[in-house]
## 1
Amino acid sequence: MKTMDVQSEVSTRLKIYLLFFVVLLVGTMTYFVIRQNSDLGTIYAATDDVTVVRPHSFLPQTNVDTTSVAP
């Protein structure tokens, strides 16, 4: 009967450690995802500000020869 109690205690401790590890892992991943989304939002906001201030900077540069006549 004594070995049964020891095995039960070991499995309970193992479950607690695994649960703690999973909670820590999920919390860390959630933190990094939220932080990355925040950084991406900052980057997109800065890009939008540059587009509003200098809209011509994102247009392709084309050299059009207006002196020739199209056939």
## 2
Amino acid sequence: MKHMELQGNCHRCQAPVFLNQTTDWYGNTVVTLNCWNGHYAWIDIQDIEEIAVESAVAGKENPVAHIGFFDMK
């Protein structure tokens, strides 16, 4: 189930900014604050092992360049 709430406008492109909650392919709850053009203020992946996240982003200034979500119905 995907849940979205309008939170204002993007400071980069003025597109609507949404607070999103969805479930990824692995069953983790993913909460993001982003505009529909892919500019992310933050992303929180719940129920994921911290060790895997730390090793994946070690030494990277901004590990998330763009993430897209879609509904399969």
## 3
Amino acid sequence: MKCQRCDSERILRVNVKHSDRGSFELEGKEHDGYAPNVPSICGGDYTDPDICLDCGQVQGTFPVATPEEFS
């Protein structure tokens, strides 16, 4: 996989299973429990972004809608 911004191949693939015990905050609103559905970042029991170690770009298509947990 190459970075969508800088073409680096140094992409860190993160995959964390947190079994409904995550804590998330957006614009001062907090959510505890399952991960909100945020494409390319997290959802349900998993947080799994791919991050370029050269430029810091999270791989995926952005912007994304505000998750319902924070609406």
